[in-house]
Write a structure and sequence with these properties.
The protein has 243 residues and is α+β, with helices and mostly antiparallel strands. It has one domain: Alpha-Beta Plaits. The chain contains five helices and nine strands. Strands 1, 2, 3, 4, 5, 6, 7, 8 and 9 form a nine-stranded mixed beta sheet that branches. A hairpin with a 6-residue loop joins strand 8 and strand 9. Helix 1 crosses helix 3. It is globular.
Length: 243
């Protein structure tokens, strides 16, 4: 088993797990379906191709810089009739940075790494209008667990953001990981890809567990020890008296 880490940084990102008519939302972090699509596109897989091997990969993401949410309205016209289409409301994340990782069988992970170096279809961060601003690959696949790799990966936030965060003390980053089947997840998301076929896209529920980890390269603030607790200290001693 090995781990492939990816840097996801760009002016705009959009990781939707649900779409209702002309409203397109985004989650606060990359989804498993979005990353699976990115990897499948890099390998040149068609939309109706089998995704079972990619969907079975363990997935996790660390929020290095959460960014801000942007709301946008878009219009479009049919190319043939020039008839206006309904106004579309879309949401994006601006100036966000994530470190995502997948873990699985070493040969498959190595092929995915090589595909990202020379992708068949250009990668984008959730939507085609969201190109990455930096190379996606961080390094060669690692021979370690996914959680450990995400804990130890270099903090990829922009320098100005890192300076602002460290000025206020210790920094902790949110980590989102696949929840084991036998454990109770912290929350669920319908972002487990079953098929990207445009005739019938299908997604399953995925359990997610959350935790916070120290930002690599920053000092962890010492936790104050609780004051000693002795409930009898406040009791007034009773003096003996003659009856």
């Amino acid at each position: 088993m090995s781990v492939l880490l990816m840097r996801l940084a760009g002016p705009l990102q959009a990781w939707g797990s649900a779409a209702r008519f002309a409203r397109r939302t985004t989650e606060n972090a990359p989804t498993k379906s979005g990353i699976t699509g990115l990897l499948a596109a890099a390998q040149g897989r068609r939309r109706d191709a089998d995704l079972s091997d990619l969907a079975a990969l363990e997935f996790g993401v660390r929020i290095d810089q959460p960014g801000a949410r942007l709301r946008d309205f878009q219009t479009a016209h049919h190319s043939d009739t020039l008839k206006a289409m309904p106004l579309s409301e879309r949401f994006y994340l601006t100036d966000a940075v994530f470190v995502a990782g997948v873990s699985g069988e070493s040969a498959l992970v190595q092929r995915l790494y090589e595909a990202l170096l020379e992708p068949v279809f250009l990668p984008y961060l959730g939507r085609r209008s969201c190109p990455p601003s930096e190379p996606i690959t961080i390094g060669e696949p690692l021979d370690k667990g996914l959680e450990q790799a995400l804990r130890e990966a270099e903090w990829e936030a922009y320098e100005r953001y890192r300076k602002r965060r460290t000025a206020s003390g210790a920094v902790r980053l949110d980590l989102l990981l696949d929840s084991p089947p036998e454990a109770r997840p912290d929350f669920t998301l319908r972002d487990l890809p079953v098929s990207f076929d445009p005739r019938h896209r299908r997604y399953g529920l995925r359990g997610i567990r959350t935790l916070q980890v120290p930002a690599p390269g920053t000092a962890e603030a010492p936790q104050p020890s609780p004051p000693p607790h002795e409930p009898t200290d406040l009791l007034t001693p009773v003096t003996s008296r003659n009856v």
